[in-house]
Amino acid sequence: MMKRRIEFLLTVALCLVLLLIWTRQHAPPPPSKDVQLLPDAILGRKRQSAVSRRPPRLGPPCYQNTSVVNVTGFSDLPERLQNFMYYRHCKYFPMLLDLPDKCGGEAGSSGVFLLLVIKSQPENFDRRVVLRETWAKERQHKGLWIRRVFISGTTGTGLEKRRMNKLLEVEHRQHGDVLQWDFQESFINLTLKQVLFLEWLDDRCPRVRFLLNGDDDIFAHTDNMVEYLHDVHGEPGGDKHLFVGSLMEGTGPVRELNKYFVPVQVQESDSYPAYCSGGGYLLSGHTARVLRNMSRSVPLHPIDDAYMGMCLAQAGLRPSGHMGVNPGGLRIPSSKVDAHDPCYYKDVLMVHRFMPQQLYVLWDQVHDPGLRCWSNSTWP
Length: 380
Ligand SMILES: *[C@@H]1O[C@H](CO)[C@@H](O)[C@H](O)[C@H]1NC(C)=O
Ligand SMILES: *[C@@H]1O[C@H](CO)[C@@H](O)[C@H](O)[C@H]1NC(C)=O
Ligand SMILES: *[C@@H]1O[C@H](CO)[C@@H](O)[C@H](O)[C@H]1NC(C)=O
Ligand SMILES: *[C@@H]1O[C@H](CO)[C@@H](O)[C@H](O)[C@H]1NC(C)=O
Ligand SMILES: *[C@@H]1O[C@H](CO)[C@@H](O)[C@H](O)[C@H]1NC(C)=O
Prior knowledge:
By secondary structure, the chain is an alpha/beta fold. Helix content is 34%, strand content 17%. Strands 3, 4, 5, 6, 7, 8, 10, 13 and 14 form a nine-stranded mixed β-sheet that branches. Strands 9-16-15 form a three-stranded mixed β-sheet, with no helix packed on it. One 2-acetamido-2-deoxy-beta-D-glucopyranose binds next to helix 9. It is found in: Golgi apparatus membrane.
């Protein structure tokens, strides 16, 4: 009788334990007091794209940080900055389009001398078409490989978003040069794009030698870049610190209410460490790896190029200037001469900003062996 009772009690206890384990495993984690759940896409639950062999690294689930509403002056901030503060800690978004073999795997990636990393929104189709034909063409220059990726988020919602994603999907299939993550494109989210790219680089092209990181409306003289990088770093190159572009020193957050506005709630300090204008800069593979390490701990900042400066500073490194990088456009000495005269561009590394058709013509002209210029050192 006693034995039966003990057996019964033990069975009940076992059932209770099993039930407890089951509920633990199947119930969602209790949301903590000050967090709200984001939609599935942001949580990384989305089905992985068929193109990716290895699932991209998923970060912790991304919650809205509602404590920011108690930051002084929060309710007076523009909506996009409130949004930035809610999700500032979210650095991981799922990949929609991946290129696992872009650089020929970990070992092969040391054979890529210059990887062109071009920030391009889905709708900038015409720019990508022209870049593939001009300075971003995948090729060897002086025996050194140049490869290209466009990095993108998503635009629009609903049907428009699906249409734009489809466009990138077709380009990705046909040209093998599009990386896309599931986050909304915006000026502020450019920082996110950079951080996600650095993580991708570490996974897929860890030994790449140099990178050009730039916009899709620049003129980048990629032949000159390869020669410059090869000259300054020698063989094999890319294993030392290098970060060059148009140097911004002694600047600080813009406090006026415009596109670049950064409120004190986001950054209290009135100064930025030195950085290079985000239109286009060159960096070594080594420096990209350092930046990726730093970006894991440096809190996101709404201005992407200033953020890179913060990550460099965190690592005790400095960017440098190069007079061949002119994000503001060249200062052409006289209004009588054609500002698109190829003679101004044949010696530069990079100039901002051009219409696709201007790039198309210019790239052809600077390669014209018959190009005659009045002097070989004319650009200002
Ligand atoms: C904001 O502060 C108030 C008063 O201190 C507090 O009751 C509330 O819980 C806080 N809200 C959040 C989301 O932290
Ligand atoms: C949420 O915001 C508060 C107030 O700005 C901040 O102190 C806290 O570190 C944030 N939490 C996370 C997870 O970023
Ligand atoms: C940045 O992307 C996230 C994820 O798509 C989105 O929730 C947020 O609104 C975007 N931020 C801005 C300022 O557009
Ligand atoms: C980045 O961090 C990893 C792990 O902490 C470390 O092994 C590696 O040396 C770091 N890379 C650079 C370039 O600092
Ligand atoms: C310009 O060209 C001449 C003759 O080819 C050469 O001697 C000179 O060093 C060049 N100057 C510059 C600044 O490149």
